[in-house]
UniProtKB/TrEMBL annotation:
The protein's name: Nucleotidyltransferase
Pfam families associated with the record: RlaP
Taxonomic lineage of the native organism: Bacteria, Bacillati, Actinomycetota, Actinomycetes, Streptosporangiales
Cross-referenced InterPro entries: RlaP
Domain of life: Bacteria
């Protein structure tokens, strides 16, 4: 797979500024013994991959072969180019925003650049992010109901056992809860607050019905719609700050690498 080459692994290893655990365990809703480990990172790529002809967007590592499902004990890692991650975060992508808010205990590796990024999490919070949470919520609800083409789940064993994919349903509800929190407070609490943390864990063990899931999702969908309209958050993330910050940290990092090379 293109993104899993030794070349890309070396870029990620040298340039990583932040790498942390994400996924259900960080949210506090994992079912013990049933989950894999997901990590997201960001790295600064060498200049030849930014201003030269080569390109680097992300490095992927999986303990399972491509196309195979991850299971308990497996590791899935995605290390984005810091530039790509920033574009996704500015657009409000719910998954890539998570590293800004994880607790210190979830951090695998961090540099001063990574610390500076997390200190400026507010630059990435906007009503645009709220719209992305809302869009993802609606998409997952429609897939749960079979309104969109393709299968909504690759977990037929959960459908056989509970009548619907409870893990997929938990992601649906979580998006609503966290989207509302982000718009109300400008931050995400990780692990999630009670009582929702326990409620979602119970859902993943079949202790709530699909109708309950849809009722909760509908409530949070409406709350998101209302908050997007009246929130005091800016409509867009701070693109100007992010652009200037990227230029500075890339230049400083490349200069540091040159000095290290010259001193050898």
């Amino acid at each position: 797979m293109k993104h899993s080459t030794p070349e890309f692994a070396a870029i990620a290893e040298r340039g990583t500024v932040l790498r942390c655990q994400v996924g259900s365990e960080v949210h506090g809703i994992a079912v013990p013994g049933h989950g894999d480990r997901d990590e997201i990172g960001m790295c600064i790529e060498p200049p030849e991959y930014v201003i030269g002809l080569r390109s680097f967007e992300q490095y992927l590592y999986r303990t399972q072969p491509e196309g195979s499902r991850s299971g308990p004990g497996d590791l899935d890692v995605t290390v984005y180019s810091l530039r790509k991650w920033t574009r996704l975060a500015l657009a409000g992508n719910p998954t890539v925003l998570i590293p800004l808010f994880v607790p210190d205990t979830a951090i695998v590796r961090i540099t001063d650049v990574g610390r500076e990024l997390r200190a400026h999490a507010d630059r990435f919070v906007s009503r645009t992010a709220g719209r992305r949470f809302l869009g993802y919520l609606r998409d997952q609800r429609d897939r749960l109901l079979g309104r969109r083409g393709g299968r909504h789940t690759n977990r037929p064993e959960l459908v056989d056992r509970y009548g619907f994919d409870v893990k997929f349903a938990a992601h649906l509800v979580r998006l609503g809860i966290q989207g509302v929190e982000l718009l109300e407070t400008g931050r995400l609490t990780l692990p999630m607050r009670e009582p929702w943390r326990t409620w979602l864990r119970d859902l993943r063990q079949g202790r709530h019905s699909r109708d309950e899931v849809l009722d909760v999702a509908a409530d949070y969908e409406q709350r998101l719609v209302d908050l997007i309209a009246r929130s005091d958050l800016p409509d867009q993330a701070d693109h100007a700050w992010a652009d200037a910050w990227l230029v500075r940290v890339y230049r400083e990092t490349w200069r540091s690498w040159e000095q290290q090379g010259a001193s050898r």
